[in-house]
C-alpha cells in the first residue's frame, strides 16, 4: 500500500473562533470536543487542534508501518518534530519535517 494523504490538522490558538470560520466553510463538524474538532470533506479529514505546537497545518499520510516509514524518512534526511504517540487504540501519529523545515505527519500502527 502506498501512503495516502487523508487528513489535514490545523493548529489553532482559539478553538471557538476557528470553529466558527471552518463551520461556515465546511458545515457542521462530525466531532466537536474541546481537544479536537473534525470535519469530513468528501472522505478527507480537516481537523482543528487547539494548542498544537507545529508551525502550521500538517498533512498526514496514512502508512501501514509507522515505525518503518519513519526510519526510512529519517535516514533520507527528515527530522523529527514529534515522536510517535497513540491517538486512538490502534492509531499512532508522528510529525517529521523535510530539509526546509516543512512539517508532515504519519498516521499508522
UniProtKB/TrEMBL annotation:
Gene3D superfamilies: 2,3-Dihydroxybiphenyl 1,2-Dioxygenase, domain 1. It comes from the Bacteria. Residues 4-109 form the VOC domain. Transmembrane segments: none annotated. It holds the Pfam family Glyoxalase_6. This is VOC domain-containing protein.
